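Before we proceed, please read the two lines closing this message. Let me know whether the structure tokens fit the sequence:

…
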Amino acid sequence: YRLFFNQSFLWRFFSVRFFSLICQLVTIWLVYLMAIKLTKKPWLGLASAAGVSFHPGFSFIAGGVSYEALGILIATAFIYLVTIKAKTRWLLIAGTIGILIKPDLIFLLLLMPFLLPKKLKWLAFLGLIGVFIGLVLILPLVNQEIRIKSSWLDRFLYTLPLKDYSVYADNLWQTIISRQLLVKTKEYLNIFFTVHWHQIFAWYWGVFGWLEKTLPLTVYPVLKIATIFSVIGLLKVWRRVKFFVLVVFLQALIVIANDWLIFVTTGQIYGIQGRYFLPAIGPQIILMVFGLFNLWPKSQKLFSLILIGLSFGLNLIGLNSLYQYFGF
């Protein structure tokens, strides 16, 4: 956006959209490569790439003007680097860039201890726990004494971004001291299972406008059945897919933990939108495709062509929902 700052608004607007499109295309390409690496089957790579390409939620987000497409690309690139056993420094670079784009992408760096040998793994976990405790102790001081008095530090923390976390850490201590942490956690769990739990799945596949228009309700039972069958199919190849499962689980855990942190420290319902889970869309769709394939006869070509057709149809349904909302 800044590169075209001196141009008209339309130049700036469409330059960002064009950049998002490039991020989307590279993401799809990396998903294709990852799927082939995992499954050893090119047709399943095409089916996985189509699943991501025609995903209604991803298509809508990547077609907009935001940092989401870049964040998804960096997360996908990190996971791809893991699959090709890239050197640690490249993983650190990708993970650090991810945090600068979006704090939720801290899950990328949290994955790194799982990639180490057993002897080093526990040391890494202990190190992360130490860093976490240190941040919880130091950030409140930063918020109360330093950040308010030093405007340059305030801007620096905003860039990292640690500004919000320094405020949350400060509020978290206040919540602990006032003995409200357990009470607020119970309140959050009640909200999560009565509200968020029912929204996440629908919103993940596509929500348009200002969280007002979803896909037709008849689509979701089909998607849920496909998800259940894919999980059953993955049990047959658990050893091969366990890292991708870890990625999906840890990324979702960070999203939920962040929402919990905001609630217990501020009392505000921040909410969990489906797009928050899109940084792990590559492993999500690859797992779904590979799981379903394990319950299918041996014709990977026919299976993949059917999935590609269904993915395209799902995208058309999303476009129709989008048209109904905007009405143009």
In short: The beta strands are 207-208, 213-214. The first helix runs from residue 9 to 39. The longest strand covers residues 207-208. The chain has a mean pLDDT of 84.
